[in-house]
Amino acid sequence: MKKKLKIYTILFVVALILVGLPSVVKYHRIGRFIPMPTQYDKLEYAELPDEYYTSRDTLENGFVSSASQSVIYDVYVEHKPVSLDSKVLVSSTPNQKYVVDMKKVHLQAPVSHTSKVYNRLISLIQYVLAIMIVWILVLVIKLIRSILKGEVFVSQVSKYLEKAGVILSVFFIFRWTVKFVIAMYLSHTIELARYYIVFRNDTNCMLILTGLALMIISQIILMGKDLKEEQDLTI
């Protein structure tokens, strides 16, 4: 019991230090060497390419189109090294002008351009995350029921807290790892004009901190239970 409490406390302190580190530590460039932009790299407003349509029929008044099913990528990006003659994105209005530097973008591609293995893997990951969330909710309901019954300093409540803490911690680590692997994969398979894909940790760090805190509390409850039993024996 005391050994577990010590281990959980050390893990909590380590996680707290990692979360508190400067944001630069959370930011990583991923992928192969990125060459300088060329004259063929374009980032512009344009008509939607034909491959994004399942049909595109011409009528007298224009086009009647049916958009094809697409895959969405939400990725963090960083500007490629620019040469002196490279252009930048500029937002211009009659009164103001700003240089635009994107950090996160929403990419869309036809399903035909993506790997079936990748799509199935993403679906599997979503199922695993959903199962973990449901599991946590079940444990929370059981915990609330035990507390309402007045069973606070009992081993069962401690087990519920410990399991919930472990699942929250595993949920954070699993989601962080998945995001890292996906960012690495996309950085090697998707080529963007003027930008390259990077990994940035946007998983809520409170998940692992809360999980470790619950694990610590579970051991404190067990210690409180033992102290209560000792007092009852003494009396």
Number of helices: 4
Average of pLDDT: 76
Report the count of strand segments: 8
Computed CA radius of gyration, to the nearest angstrom: 26 Å
Low-confidence stretches: 57-61
Task: Work out the oligomeric state of the chains in this entry.
Answer: single chain
Structure description:
Helix 2 runs antiparallel to helix 3 (155-189). This protein has a four-stranded antiparallel sheet with strand order 1-8-4-7, covered by helices on one side. A two-stranded antiparallel ribbon has the order 2-3. A two-stranded antiparallel ribbon has the order 5-6. A hairpin with a 2-residue loop joins strand 2 (53-59) and strand 3. Mean pLDDT is 76; it is low at 57-61. By secondary structure, it is an alpha+beta fold. It has four helices and eight strands. It has a domain at 2-22 and 114-194 and 201-234.
Write the layout of secondary structure elements.
Blueprint: H1 2-20, E1 27-29, E2 53-59, E3 62-67, E4 70-79, E5 89-92, E6 97-100, E7 104-110, H2 116-148, H3 155-189, E8 195-200, H4 206-234
Antiparallel strand pairs: 1-8, 2-3, 4-7, 4-8, 5-6
Helix pairs in contact: 1-4, 2-3, 3-4
Kindly summarize this structure in a few lines:
This protein is of the alpha+beta class. It has helices spanning 2-20, 116-148, 155-189, 206-234; strands spanning 27-29, 53-59, 62-67, 70-79, 89-92, 97-100, 104-110, 195-200.
Quickly list its features.
20% strand, alpha+beta, single chain, 8 strands, 235 residues, 4 helices, two-stranded antiparallel sheet
